[in-house]
Amino acid sequence: MRYGYFDDENREYVITTPRTPLPWINYLGSEDFFSLVSNTAGGYSFYRDAKLLRLTRYRYNSAPADGEGHRFYIRDGACVWNPGWQPVRTELDSYRCRHGLGYTVIEGAKNGIEAKQEMFVPLGDACEVIRLTLHNAGAEPRALQLFSYVEFCLWNAVDDSTNFQRNYSTGEVEVEGGAIYHKTEYRERRSHYAVFGVNRTPDGFDTSRDAFLGPYRGPAGPLAVERGTCTGSIAHGWAPVGVHQLNVTLAPGERRSFIFVLGYVENPPREKWAAPGVVEKSRARAMLARYAADTQVDAALAALAAYWNGLLARFSLRSGDEKLDRMVNIWHQYQCMVTFNMSRSASYYESGTGRGMGFRDSCQDLLGFVHLVPGRARQRILDIAATQFADGSSYHQYQPLTKKGNLDVGSGFNDDPLWLIACVSAYLRETGDRSILYEEVPFDCREEDTAPLMEHLRRSLGFTASHKGPHGLPLIGRADWNDCLNLNCFSSEPGESFQTTGPSEGPVAESVFIAGMFVKYGGEYADICAWEGLSQEARAVRAQVDEMTAAILGPGWDGAWFRRAYDANGRPVGSAECAEGKIYIEPQGMCVMAGVGLSDGRALQALESVRRHLDTEYGILLLQPAYTQYHLELGEISSYPPGYKENAGIFCHNNPWISCAECAAGRGGRAFEVYRRTCPAYLEEISEIHRTEPYVYSQMIAGRDAAAFGEAKNSWLTGTAAWTFVNISQYILGIQPTLDGLRIAPCIPAAMPGFTVTRTYRGAVYEIAVDNAAGVEKGVKCITADGAPCVDGILPAAPAGTTVHVKVTMG
C-alpha cells in the first residue's frame, strides 16, 4: 500500500494522506541550524547540539503522536483547521506534503481556502523560514484568523524535561512588534536567545502556554483560537511559547503570504548591555529583515536548490531502472548528507539528549559523503581523531557542540580504532590530499599531547595488534560493531552462572569480526604506508595482516562459515556448536570483503551459508537461530525478544556487507538481489508493513521470528546510508576511488545491459559508459579514456576542470 509517490523530476517524495503509519519526516538544515519536520508539520529545532541548544520542545512518546511542531491554526468562523491536519485533525478537503532536499511544503485546503506552508533552513543562517500562503479559491470575500504556535524549550533538553522545580520559574520573553524573543537564561551566563517573528505587525500575541491553550487543554483545542483572540500574555516562568494572531481578509482569488522566522541568535560574551537580562536585538532584527519579503525567500530557496544541484551532480547514474536511479541520484546521497550532519544524535528515534556523535558512526558515515563535501570531511576526520587516546583506543561518542569525548559512555569498544583508518583511507582515495596525514591532532582533545594524524592511524592499528586473545584474534572489549554482544563474562566451571567482570568488561573475549576489519583496513593502512614511501612499515603491517588472516582461517572458521567470536570462557559464539545463535552475518560480510577465503573456496561457502540460514524476503537476518532465552554470557543481545534488533532482526546496516562480499566473489546477480531487498524505493508498495519512510533507510527491520516481521524502525540516522551508497557505487557499479586514480570494476546482474555514470573525482568530471552486451556479472574486457586504452584498469587523476570520456566493455 502506498501513501504517496516519488516525484523524481522535482526530487521530492509527495505524501498524499496525513495518516501515514508513522510520522514521515524530513531534515531542514545543512550547517549549524536544523529542524526536523514531519508530514503533518510536527518536529523540533535546534542549533548545532540537539541536547544543549534545543529551541523547541518535542515529546517523543506522547499520544497522540507527533503533537509538537511548526503549527498554524486557521480559524474560519466556527471551523478551525491546520494545513498539515495535526493537531486539530479537522478533516481536510485536500492535503499533500512534499519532502524535498532541505525543504518541506505542506498544502491543505478547507471550505474554499487553500493554505501552503513552506519550510526550509537557508544557507548560512541560523534560522528556519516558514512562509504561509493563504488563497481564497472561492467567489466571496473571506475573513479569517491565522495563529502561529511554537513551544520553546528551555535550551538544555534533558534539564527542560526533568528539572521542573527550577524551570517553572525561569521562562522569560520580550515582545517587539512581530518578534517574540525567548530569552530564558539570557540574564545569567548565556549570550544566546531565540526569536520567533513574522513580517507584519500582528493583531495579537501570546507567550504563555497556559494563557493560549487554556486550563486543562492541549494543542488540539487552544482556548485563544476557539475564542478568536489572543490574550497578550507575557510568560513569567512556566512554559513560554510563541503565538502570533493575524486577522486576514481575502478577496475572491486573492493570495497573501506571511513569512515567519524561528532563529537562534548569539551575542559575543564580551558585549555588555545597559540593563541585565534585556536582549540586544540588532542581530535578530537583521535576521528577520533578511526574509521580510517574498523575493528574499524565493532567492534563499533558489540558493538552497543550487547547493543541492551542485552536490548531487558529483555522482549520477543512468541505468534504465528508475528506482535504482532515484536512489543513487537523490535519496542515497541526501540521506548520507543528513547522517553527516547528525551522526546518530537527533531523529524521531534518537532523542538528541544523549549519544551525540559516534566515533564508529561518524567514521563510517564519512564513507558515504566524502565525495560530496571533501573539505568538510577533512575537518570531521580531525575532530574524530582528536577524541582518540594515546594508546590508540578512543571515546565511543563525542558531543557536537564541544567536540569532546562523552565521559558517560567512555571507551572500550575495540572496533572503534580501525574505523578511523577506514575513513582516512576513504578520504585519501577520494582526494589524494596527503597533507592531512601531517596535521597535528591532539589525543583526548588535549593540546599539550599531539601527534600527526599518521601517528594516530599507526596507534589505531597498534592497539588492535597488541590486544589479542588466546586464539590470536582481537580482544572485543566492551563490544565491537554489535554493541549488544557483550562477551567479557566469566564462570569458574562450564555451565555455572556467569558474572560480569565489572566496568572494565574483562580482557579475554575475542572478535572474529574485528579480525576481518584488521585484515581489510590493515591492508589499506599498508597501502597508505607504501604510498608515503614507508616501505618497511608497509611490509611489517602486511605480515601482521597475514598472521591475522591465518587466525581467521584457523580458530575463526567453523567448517561452513566464519565464527562470530569467543566468549570470556573461550567458547565459540556463532558456531554450529551453539544451540542458538549458530551463525552471524557480520563476519561473513567483513571477512569476505577483506578477501579472506576467496582463494580456497571458503568465502563462497560462507556466503552460501548466509543464503541458506539468514535470507528472508525483507533482507538478511543478523543471526540464526534467534535467542529464545537470556544468555548472561552474551550480554544485551539476548535481552531482546526473538526477531527484534540484534536478536535476529534484519540490520540494514550490515546487509550491504554481504552485497559487497558477493561482489568480491564476483556474483553480481546475488549482490544486486541483496541490495534490492532493503532498498526503500523497492519497498514502497508494502509501506503498510514497513511503516517507515519509503525514501530513506531504517536501521533495522523485524526478522522472521518477530510478530511484526517486515516492520522497520529507527529511520534516517543509520550507517546503512553510507554503506549502501558505498555498495552500489563502488562495488556493484564498480566506480572505485584508489590512492592512484579511479578503478572501474563493475559487478552487476548478467541481465543488466549496461549503465552510465557521471562522477566528479579530484576536480575532474568522468563520463563513464559501461557496456555489458556480453551478459556477464563481472570482468572488464577493455577500458578507454578519451579513446586511449587504459592498460592497468586504473584511470589516473585528470587535471581539475577537465572532462574525461570513459568507455568500459565488460566481458
From TrEMBL:
Q: Tell me the ranges covered by the Glycosyl hydrolase 94 catalytic domain, including all copies.
A: 307-734
- Has UniProt tagged this entry with the keyword Transferase? yes
* Gene Ontology molecular functions: carbohydrate binding; glycosyltransferase activity
UniProt organism field: Ruthenibacterium lactatiformans
Which GO BP terms apply?
Answer: carbohydrate metabolic process
The name on file for this protein is: Glycosyl transferase
Could you name the domain of life of the organism this protein comes from?
Bacteria
What does the UniProt keyword field contain?
Answer: Glycosyltransferase, Transferase
Please list the residue ranges annotated as the Glycosyl hydrolase 94 supersandwich domain.
Answer: 11-291
